[in-house]
Structure formats: structure tokens, C-alpha cells
Fold this protein.
Amino acid sequence: MSIETDLVVVGYGAAGAAAALTAARRGAKVALIEKQSAAHHYSSTRMSGGLVMGANDVDGCARYLDACSGGMIPSDVSRAWAERAVKVKAWMETIGIGSVHMAGGWYPKLKGYEAIEVYGPLPKGTDPASVKVDLPTPGELSFKFPLAFGNGELLHDLLHDAISAEPNISIHYGLSAKRLVEEGGRIVGLECENGESFRATYGVVLACGGFEQDQEMILNYLKAYPIYFYGSPANTGDGVRMAQAVGADLWHMNQMIGRAVGHFQHPDGREITFNVSLNPPGYVIVDKYGRRFANEYLQAISKANFYYELLAYDADLLEHPRIPAYWICDKRRIDAKALSHGSIGHYAWSKDNRAEIDMGWIKEAASIEEAARLAGCLDSEAAARAVADYNEACAKGDDKFGRPANSLVPIDQGPFYCIPVYPGGATTNGGPRRDAKARILNALREPIPGLFGAGELGGAIGMLYPSPGSNLGEAFAFGAIAAETALGDNA
């Protein structure tokens, strides 16, 4: 027998939570479907930095989002997001999430940049007025938080508290969505792998993430291969396939939230991907042949455009010479702090990096040349020369790739270390095409009645990732829009 409800929301992350809360507060009964179990619920939201993009001006925000999209997102969709972005801080407060302004957009060169504000969630009971934040340099993100906020675990817990307080929302863990149910040209329900099914008066919101854990989709849709992700292990492209099965069009399937990442095999056989932190300096990244190729500072401050530098294809060698690339540093960096915070729910990185050195993830040697050779660099002598050239640039205070002076710290205190890094990141962006009302569209750009999308599954982000927390800001915006449209569109 089918479970009868008003609205089905597939995926319990930021987008699914926003859709469910919005519908429930309008009096609708919501079935929130989550693939993972309650005990192992690791959404991309929970595994994220927990920051949320907002704005202080609709027109400026819309201009900036348009510029970042590279023409991949229609202007009315960007504007719909901008209209929610100026209200997102207040909206979070209505569900019990206080926050503080702690950063801006990534790209000061683009028009409308000044309109972007990034918010960090606060633990319950914290007075936002009591938290003083020194805003970082334009286009950067400060990692020196005055409180234990700015993390996905906190945001996840706050969202879960809000969801649990809503009697109109029923959470169904451990159900893998399989197929949308269509009757008379309208989506009226959902079937799950275990035979459970749901019927929904107002339709279905797909908020079940991207395809970052489906290697075949990565190979066929993204710009290079291999590419690895540290987002949710549950995001295997289910929403893309379900939407395609009922005629959905797809958009910007080649886009992702990209960075250089670490990808390693644990002794127990698991493959794990990590968001790695170059900072504090010094650091250098070279290609397979030991050559520096880009401004590593962009990676060091976690900007999501450095990964484009890793995608270069050599038409003569018929290969991607920067996959993997090699990050070189010295004892000063290794001793400073952990290279990663680990993978939430999967692996806790050691505070002194020693466990990862002992497992061979980080290669250690008395010379730069030997460390690079051990890591797999094909020309370790060239890598050593690249570091020597970099050290000379540090002495002169003038780097050929334009790194700021405060990042020019020499790599000269042995032992030395080398770590392979790959293009990768948090999430993919592509998926079912949607309009400004969060309606999923077919190949003729017509809404599929009763079907809506939100979050990273076809998210409204194109060429450039606009700011820290853009995925979560977009998820809150279109999660709410999807629920509102669904409840107001029962035709």
C-alpha cells in the first residue's frame, strides 16, 4: 500500500529540509525520504563548511550571479535566487538558526560583488551581537572563527532540530528512491527500492544531490578524469536518472564545485577523498613532470576556480599532465597543523599528520627530489628545480605566478613532503533543468507537472562558484521556492 501525503521530498540535506519546513509551515503533510540510515546520515550539508551565501541587494546579487554563471543559468533563475538571498539570514532565524556575517563573494572583479554576504551559523543560545568577526580581505575567507561555528555538523544539527519540531514532517530513513510515479502526465508519487511507495497530492521535490559518487557519470559528463569528491557517499545520481525517466532535460552537467583534493586508499581497502589545506605557506604544486603551472594561492584560500588549472589537456602527449599534480612542502608546514580535517563519518585525520605519513599518503624524504619521486612525479629533478626557483622568488618577493607576498614562504626546512592531488571537490552541479519557480522542465523547456528540483541536483550554479556557502544558499532558496510552487500549483 502507498503512504498518502501532501508532498514528497527526496533527500534530507539543506534543500530537502528547506522544502519540507516550508511546506509543513503552510499546513502540508510532508514525507521526507532519505537514502541513508538515521545512524549514518551524512548529507553533503553535514559534510560541508556550513556557510550560507546571502546578499544585501537583489539587483547587485542578480548581476553577480549572472556573471558567475557564464551564460549557463537564465537571468530570471539567478534573480529568483537573489530575491531569496537577501532574506536568507532572516529565514534561518525563523527556524532557529542564528548567524553572523563573516565573508563576501569570491570574485571582486565581477559586477555586483559588493552585494554578497556569507553567513556562519551560531550554536543555539549564542547572541549574534556578542560575536565580533573581522571580515577577511575581499575575495578571501578567514578560517579564524571566534566561536565553534562555520561547520556543516552544526548546521546539520540545527536543521534537524527544526525538522524534528514539525509534526507535519515524517522522516523515512533507509529508503532508496527508485522511480517517479506518473499518472495523466503528472507526477503523483514515488516508488522506492524496497517496494515502499508514496502518493503525494502536490507532487515530488527532488533534492537528493548530484552524481559525485557515480564514476561512470563523472567520466561521461565532467571535464576530465579521474575526478574525486568528498561530498556525501549517497549522491550517486539517483535524481538525475529518475528525472530523465519522466522526460526531464539536463543542464550544465559538466559543472562542479572544484578544488584540488587528496585521494588515498586506506589499508583496509577503502578509497577516501579529502579536502586538503595548503595553508600555512610555504607550498608549491607541480605537474607530473615537475613543472609549476599556476597560482597556488587560489587553492590555499579554498577558491573554487583553481581546479580549472588542473584540467589542462596536452594534445601532443594525449594526456592530462596535471592529473595528478603534486603538492610539495616542508617540515614547517607539516608541523603547523593537519593537512585536512578528515572525512566526516569516514576518517578522522591525525592532528600531527603522522598517521598519514606512516600509511604512505604523504611521502617523506630528506630531499625534495626524493619526496617527489616517492609520490610518483615523473621528473623529480624538475620538481626540485621548481622549488629552488620558487625559493629564489621568495627571497626577491616577486613570484612569476602572482602570488601575494605574504604567501611567499620558502620550502627549505627538511625533511620534505610530497602529496598527490587531483581535481575534485564537494559536489557536482548538473542535473534536471529547472526554471525560476523550481519546476523541472522537459526537453521542450515545459514544466513537468508535479515535479520540482532544489539543491545541488541541477543547482543554479554555472561556470564559477559565487562565494563560500553558495551551495547551501542556493539549497535554502530553491528548496523554499519548490515547496511554495508545489503547494500553489495543483493543476
User: Anything to note?
Assistant: Residues 398 and 405 are 7 Å apart (CA to CA). Residues 470-488 form the longest helix (19 residues). Residues 3-209+429-488 form a domain with the FAD/NAD(P)-binding domain fold (CATH 3.50.50.60).
